[in-house]
């Protein structure tokens, strides 16, 4: 006798644990849906081969995809093997995440049946409910698929309200930093955030943030961190941010003896949002000694081109304010933009050295041409040898850090992957021409 429940198997390794946690928090309570999570390749293949899955009427295999993983040939081979096995066992396959949103057609080319565009909480819940009830899956908004050999997008859907779902599935014992803000109004040309989550910021309410902070502390997690594209933009007003910081101090730091890390990993602050009153107040609230500032370049020409919305003077002002109140500004820089000139590199190294003299440190990154951005799959600029030596001296002196050299290797892999994209897409469309409208 067939099990009437929908079986969902989600692949959750360390690279996508946060995003899968968000999906789990949204779908775990969907009626008649049973969710199994696997965290390594061997476990996934074993789950797909298990005889226990035979009893389920509907089975779904889901991945969250990062471009930096997709360009790895070993990972693609694993995905290919998993999808082949899944299809042989009667699964419907789905993918979401930054790569799926940024390049849905390529994601179909990897072998997935359905791609979730953008935020997946609402759309995945509806998708599973429609599957369970035998409805028309093509009426679920937010999906990208192939229909009769042609790409089909089912349409945009409303943005997710953060308070609608927990930030993690705490009932499974799974936790991560609390997402407090989603979306970004700036649309920087290298960054996926605006193009995946929209330009209107949405904020989790202070009451909900405190609720989940208290929950984490009650489970023995005493170091609390937050996910936001700009930590000083919370509530879209200075007063809201000050209210959040004050209540974190009164309810979490003072009463629960937990430690709050704000404006540091895994988030940052924009330099034009650094406010003296906020930084002064933070000194009594947070436990982080560093505040991460997103400068991104030392060239105003580059900053204008990538649409940062601020200049170098705002960076200097932010560094000065942060140092004044006893924090160390850890300033992000990205090099290797396709249009970056020799003069831009020279301006950037001068800005870096000035920041170090002011009391800051340099956090180095290399440009990655991520799909879904205006600079998708663009060829990165090679870094001049003299610039490498200058940055190496800063790092050697303990004034800089970063995984930029490994990112340079990955960036070139992404560029090459994009260069070969048209051949893969053409092959995909040729092979699916004339497909029937069916799910399995």
Written account of the structure:
This is TIGR04013 family B12-binding domain/radical SAM domain-containing protein. Pfam families: B12-binding (PF02310), Radical_SAM (PF04055). Residues 3-138 form the B12-binding domain. InterPro entries: BchE-like (IPR051198), CHP04013_B12-bd/rSAM (IPR023980), Cobalamin-bd (IPR006158), Elp3/MiaA/NifB-like_rSAM (IPR006638), rSAM (IPR007197), rSAM_horseshoe (IPR023404), rSAM_sf (IPR058240). With 440 residues, the chain is α/β, with parallel strands linked by helices. It folds into two domains: 3-158, Rossmann fold; 177-402, Aldolase class I (TIM Barrel), CATH 3.20.20.70. It has helices at 17-27, 41-49, 67-70, 73-88, 98-102, 104-109, 121-133, 193-197, 206-218, 238-256, 276-282, 300-305, 312-324, 342-358, 385-396, 404-419, 421-432; strands spanning 3-11, 33-38, 56-64, 91-96, 114-116, 143-147, 150-153, 178-179, 181-182, 202-203, 223-224, 226-227, 259-260, 290-296, 328-335, 361-366, 400-401. Strands 2-1-3-4-5-6-7 form a seven-stranded mixed beta sheet, sandwiched between helices. A four-stranded parallel beta sheet has the order 14-15-16-17. Strands 8-12 form a two-stranded parallel sheet. Helix 14 links the parallel strand 15 and strand 16. Helix 1 (17-27) packs across helix 7 (121-133), helix 2 runs parallel beside helix 4 (73-88) and helix 14 runs parallel beside helix 15. The radius of gyration is 23 Å and the shape is globular. Mean pLDDT is 95; it is low at 433-440.
